[in-house]
Design a protein that fits this description.
Layout lengths: L5 H30 L3 H7 L2 E4 L8 E6 L2 E7 L2 H7 L31 E5 L10 E3 L15 E4 L4 E4 L19 E3 L4 E4 L7
Antiparallel strand pairs: 1-9, 2-3, 3-4, 5-6, 6-7, 8-9
């Protein structure tokens, strides 16, 4: 029977163990990396910065945040005045359902009264309502319409603060996303921040 070289045996066992560990790491790293969100996914969830200085009074722009349309409306003094006339017609005038951050739980549902930030998705079945911003009998609306949003799929109506009218199929107000003003002209959607 031949004599076993113990030093060589230990060396081979150690070398094999090290190579096995390296091979295991080589397999594990790409596997674990595949579970991390892609650059595209990270960008889709990232905050969105918007220049609000170019939005004319009475106008609205749409930006995308997390794959959702977000409306930014520059409300006029007349639009803001109309908000106080509607409380008896709204489903949730006191904003009891938490569809907005605490800083937007006010009469205008916004940080700055003249600028409204809303997720443009109906809370009924996820349709995108149509902006009907002008007061009066805009197409499909009655003469007493003060402006807002109309979901043509099932008839839900929202005012210019995204509050749902009584009798609408939508159960809650439109969502106000987290946002803050980085400056007088720059809005960041997706973070509450410490700004205005």
């Amino acid at each position: 029977m031949a004599e076993v070289d113990q030093k060589r045996r230990r060396f081979l066992i150690a070398a094999t163990s090290v190579m096995g560990g390296v091979a295991g790491a080589a397999v594990a790293v790409p596997f674990i990396a595949s579970m991390l969100p892609s650059e595209r996914a990270r960008a889709a969830g990232a905050p969105v910065e918007v220049d609000v200085s170019k939005i004319e009074p009475g106008a609205m722009i749409t930006v995308e945040w997390r794959g959702k349309p977000v409306w930014i409306i520059h409300r006029t003094k007349e639009m803001l005045a109309g908000l106080t006339e509607l409380e008896d017609k709204l489903s949730d005038p006191k904003l009891d359902v938490p569809q907005q951050p605490e800083y937007a739980k006010n009469a205008t549902r916004s940080r700055k009264p003249e600028l409204m930030v809303l997720v443009g998705i109906c809370t009924h079945l996820g349709c995108s309502p149509t902006p009907k911003l002008k007061a009066g009998s805009e197409e499909g609306m009655t003469a007493d319409w003060l402006g807002g949003f109309f979901c043509p799929c099932h008839g839900s109506k929202f005012d210019l603060a995204g509050r749902v009218f009584q009798g609408s199929p939508a159960p809650t107000n439109l969502e106000v996303p987290p946002h803050y003003y980085m400056s007088d002209t720059r809005l960041l959607i997706g973070e509450d921040g410490k700004g205005a």
